[in-house]
Write a structure and sequence with these properties.
By secondary structure, this protein is an all-alpha fold. About 65% of the residues lie in helices and about 0% in strands. α2 packs across α7 and α8 packs across α9.
Amino acid sequence: MDQPGYDYHIDIPGTTIFDGKQAMKGYALNKMCYSFNKKENRDAFAADEEGYMAAFGLTDPQKEAIRSRDILGMIEAGGNIYYLAKLAGIFKLSVQDVGGLQTGRSTEEFKDFLKSQA
């Protein structure tokens, strides 16, 4: 049920809003990323990325974003940043790396930005 006065269709330029539509779009990708809570699954992905993606039924855009290590593309393909954090870790990306990507900054610029907000 919608809350009065709340706009559920917010458009923030350059930002992919994770809503119900995105959740459905990214279900397989997020399910796969959730599996990375177990080390054996992270190891299985590292050993055979293509096979692991196929086992979860990822879409071609999701697979391509993973192949190119495109976190923003994964978000656009329905990925939830909280689930993608596990995948980013496999790619040796920190939260600050991803924050920089999301804001168009280098990792160092993003860290400096965060420090300036304290």
